[in-house]
Design a protein that fits this description.
Number of helices of chain B: 13
Largest interface: A-B, 65 and 58 residues
Helix content of chain B: 55-70%
Number of domains of chain B: 2
Shape of chain B: globular
Number of helices of chain A: 24
Distance between the termini of chain A: 33 Å
Helix content of chain A: 40-55%
Oligomer: heterodimer
CATH topology of the largest domain in chain B: Recoverin, domain 1
CATH class of the largest domain in chain B: Mainly Alpha
Chain lengths: 633, 242
């Protein structure tokens, strides 16, 4: 319940008089205010600056420092005020939260000091209003990255007792940790360069014999090039295998981009070894050699900038996608237009729409090769429009990509998007929980209330004291209001899961032979037995009851949360409750005093029903066909 | 074509136009396109001025404390507390129906309280001007919290009588009942069925409608309630609120 509307609770309760004439049941008793205080001003002295507010304002959020009795620790007897030795500027935001129900984050505040103040006053930062939440999260992320940067610099201290494997992995990841690693790093770099240069030089035409045409060097010095290639591939293979051995998680390593590049780089050589003799696949083999150029990507291990570029492209995937999409749209449109415009002219190169694609692309990227030009006037007009729009379409997403790159470059790239998503989910989850908190709070307090009543009946007071949490007066009044509504309509609030199961039950009304077994929800306290058993107690028809008859669906009398497996007829509150059928040899108060979750499990008239998770149930005799298992956890 | 009032106005005009001329929809659409373009191209200046006036008129200040004290049964302090809460939630000084529904719905998170809030709003808005000012609010509360049983029953009758004709018909009662059951929401035990509100209305009418003429008058209502012990007791339930 939001803070502001707490002031309207008296109105809502007064309006409940409108339900009274239609209600058929008597209403529950209203909660009395035990110590009704007149609303008074209290003074909060924060490092000398005095804030004053009504006591009721602070009571709106009873789970924070100021709203609970925790503030009494800070009460100063002489000056009759509450003194906090904290930052008064941040306290302004905190107090405004109580007044307006919205928490704002001031931009000029340092994020860590703000967080500290919130933690001190017991306020969860997730409830920062939408107006300030983006800013807060951005600042928080930057701060976290800064901290991680600092941490990373400290991580290079050598830890004792590292296994050989771990040493190797560290050597691979951070070359400057030891000399061996550095040497290895440079050697691999050198061989990558050699391999790439070899690939390139292979195709250069060398000098030739006078009467033959020019041959590329690769064919002239086949053996030399082959030896060079073999040497490089050997080094790469050894390196890959060593990395694979040292990797802490081999599966993850094998899935990483760099290892895939490694594999792709060395695979063509091995494939080539295997199938040199076969003539048909030599064409494919030649194609495979193209993949050797991927070795150049191995340089990205050596260059930070390359990695950042790759990461930028990955993180700008949506902008790139948009660029591609809009370009495709424009290309198709203009190609079609040009084709139909040029259709009339003879000897036109625009033979089909796909043929016009080439013209469109060349024009839009302002290349203008000139191999295809429009000849008709309409074609020229549309061609000029095409080139003008091309500039626009391409220029639009580029600044986004550029700014992204610079941002990542400056922050030295982190995988922050993934983390931000998780936090966002957590935030939404928390907000959702707090929203459903009000409705579940009511159900919770109902269970507590009934439990207290039951305990009163069995005279065990110590449990009662333990369980009766002090809900604030506001909450108890709100719950009383909801209770009145229940009585008016003769129906009860239950939570979602329970409702779904009882809905299923309503559907299964016509099948007397089956009743699924259900278990109770979490956190349900309740003593089912004693209270209701005094009202209606139907003796347990034992195994003598034939299975096809009315199933022993023991409608558990506990009204909320626990499973109420209806009988064939679902009847309104007052009549359908039969008592919990317990095991005959079990004394009634036992469950109550166990003061724990009790669940009633309905049996299926089939062999021993499995009670759902986690019950330490007391199995009834296996001979009983229709058995009630009461489990006290 | 942004503000809802303009749009509503336009739609109204459209309906009148169609009715008057009996024109088919297709022709009308074309015509409307032109009209729409014209309206968009040249927004009429007089509407904006009216909007401004409307905004400033909405700021409402209540009568003085002494007058309210005289008219209601609240003490000065209680009026102060009430006004502070009221003003906090509605800084402009009046509650319109939307805000009213929002506020009331916050108390019933599981169900949909908007229909019942609508009826409540009409019950509080005694002068039917579409907004509840602080005076309306406090007068209503005075009856509910400090009034005699007669007055409270009167108020309840007024709430049920949707068209304020002095009779509660079965349809009106059914609307109210559905609104109340809506507040329960979906997740109830036992599961809410379609005919539950109707049955409840039947029970109500059996109890209240003495001469079986299908409507409940104010006298029948008050008589019957005064004879019912439960109802009498529940009328005193909220007396210590505030």
């Amino acid at each position: 319940m939001a803070a502001g509307v707490a002031a309207w609770l008296p109105f809502a309760r007064a309006a409940a008089i409108g339900w009274m004439p239609v209600a058929n049941l008597p209403m529950p008793v209203a909660p009395t205010e035990k110590n009704k205080r007149q609303d008074e001003l209290i003074i909060l002295n924060v490092s000398g600056r005095r804030f004053q507010t009504w006591r009721n304002t602070l009571d709106r959020y009873p789970d924070t420092l100021l709203g609970s009795s925790e503030k009494e620790f800070f009460y100063n007897e002489e000056t009759k005020e509450y003194f906090f030795d904290r930052d008064p500027d941040v306290f302004r935001s905190v107090l405004n939260f109580y007044r307006t129900g919205k928490l704002h984050y001031p931009r000029y505040e340092c994020i860590s000091s703000y967080d500290e103040e919130l933690a001190f006053f017991g306020i969860v930062p997730e409830i920062i209003g939408d107006c300030c939440y983006e800013e807060y999260k951005d600042r928080k992320r930057e701060n976290a990255e800064r901290l991680m940067d600092d941490q990373e610099d400290n991580k290079d201290a050598k830890l004792p007792n590292m296994t050989f494997r771990e040493t190797m992995w560290r050597a691979f990841e951070n070359p400057h940790t030891s000399t061996m690693a550095l040497v290895f790093y440079y050697v691999t770099g050198f061989f990558i360069a050699v391999s790439v240069i070899t690939n390139v030089v292979e195709t250069v035409p060398c000098g030739s014999a006078p009467n033959q045409k020019e041959v590329p060097c690769g064919e002239r010095y086949t053996v030399a090039f082959f030896c060079m290639d073999t040497a490089c591939v050997m080094i790469f293979t050894v390196e890959y295998l060593m990395r694979l051995f040292a990797a802490p998680s081999r599966y993850r390593f094998m899935r990483s981009v760099m290892s895939i590049i490694d594999v792709v780089a060395i695979l063509p050589y091995y494939i080539g070894l295997v199938m040199t003799d076969n003539e048909d696949v030599s064409g494919a083999f030649v194609t495979l050699r193209v993949f050797r150029v991927f070795r150049i990507f191995k340089f990205s291990r050596h260059s930070q900038g390359l990695r950042i570029l790759g990461y930028t492209l990955k993180s700008c995937a949506s902008e790139l996608g948009f660029l591609l999409f809009s370009l495709t749209m424009a290309i198709i449109i203009f190609a079609t237009v040009m084709f139909y415009a040029e259709k009339g002219s003879s000897s036109s190169k625009f033979t089909s729409i796909p043929a016009s694609f080439w013209y469109t692309i060349v024009t839009m990227t302002t290349l203008g090769y000139g191999d295809m030009v429009p000849k008709t006037i309409a074609g020229k007009i549309f061609g000029s429009i095409c080139s003008l729009s091309g500039v626009l379409v391409i220029a639009l997403p580029v600044p986004v990509i550029v700014s992204n790159f610079s941002r990542i470059y400056h922050q030295n790239q982190r995988a922050d998007k993934r983390r931000a998503q998780k936090v966002q989910k957590a935030r939404l989850a928390r907000i959702r929980i707090s929203k459903t908190g009000s409705s579940s709070a009511f159900l919770h307090s109902k269970r507590n209330g009934l439990f207290n009543e039951a305990l009163e009946l069995t005279n065990s007071t110590e449990d009662e004291q333990r369980l009766s949490k002090s809900t604030s007066l506001l909450e108890s009044q709100h719950h009383h209001l909801l209770h009145c509504l229940e009585k008016t309509t003769n129906h009860e609030f239950v939570d979602e899961q329970y409702y779904q199961q009882s809905y299923l039950e309503a559907g299964l009304q016509n099948y007397p032979s089956r009743s699924p077994s259900l278990s109770s929800q979490d956190g349900v306290t309740g003593t089912c037995c004693t209270r209701r058993s005094k009202k209606h107690h139907t003796p347990l028809p034992n195994a003598s009851a034939p299975a096809h008859m009315q199933p022993l669906t023991h409608t558990h009398t506990h009204p909320q949360g626990l499973q109420e497996l209806s009988t064939i007829h679902i009847q309104p509150l007052s009549t359908s409750r039969s008592s919990l059928n317990m095991r005959v040899d079990e004394p009634a108060p036992l469950n109550c005093q166990s003061s724990q979750i009790t669940t009633a499990i309905i049996s299926i008239p089939t062999p021993p029903v499995t009670t759902p998770e986690g019950d330490a149930h007391l199995p009834a005799g296996p001979t009983h066909q229709n058995v009630v298992k009461v489990s006290a956890l | 074509m942004c503000t809802p009032t303009k749009r509503a106005q336009w739609r109204e005009d459209l309906q009148h136009f169609r009715k008057d001329h009996g024109i088919s929809k297709k022709v009308l659409l074309n015509c409307c396109l032109v009209r729409r373009i014209i309206t968009w191209a040249s927004p009429s200046p007089k509407d904006s001025v009216e909007d401004e006036l409307e905004l400033s008129a909405v700021r409402h200040r209540p009568e003085g404390l002494e007058q309210l004290e005289a008219q209601t049964r609240f003490s000065r302090k209680e009026l102060q507390i009430l006004y502070r809460g009221f003003k906090n939630e509605c800084p402009s000084g009046v509650v319109n129906e939307e805000t009213f529904k929002d506020i009331y719905s916050q108390f019933f998170p599981q169900g949909d309280a908007s229909t019942y809030a609508h009826f409540l709003f009409n019950a509080f808005d005694t002068d039917h001007n579409g907004s509840v000012s602080f005076e309306d609010f406090v007068m209503g509360l005075s009856i509910l919290l400090r009034g005699t049983v007669q007055e409270k029953l009167n108020w309840a009758f007024n709430l049920y009588d949707i068209n304020k004709d002095g009779y509660i018909t079965k349809e009106e009662m059914l609307d109210i009942m559905k609104a109340i059951y809506d507040m329960m929401g979906k997740c109830t035990y036992p599961v809410l069925k379609e005919e539950t509100p109707r049955q409840h209305v039947e029970v109500f009418f059996q109890k209240m409608d003495k001469n079986k003429d299908g409507v409940v008058t104010i006298d029948e209502f008050i008589d019957c309630c005064q004879n019912d012990e439960n109802i009498m007791r529940s009328m005193h339930l909220f007396e210590n609120v505030l």
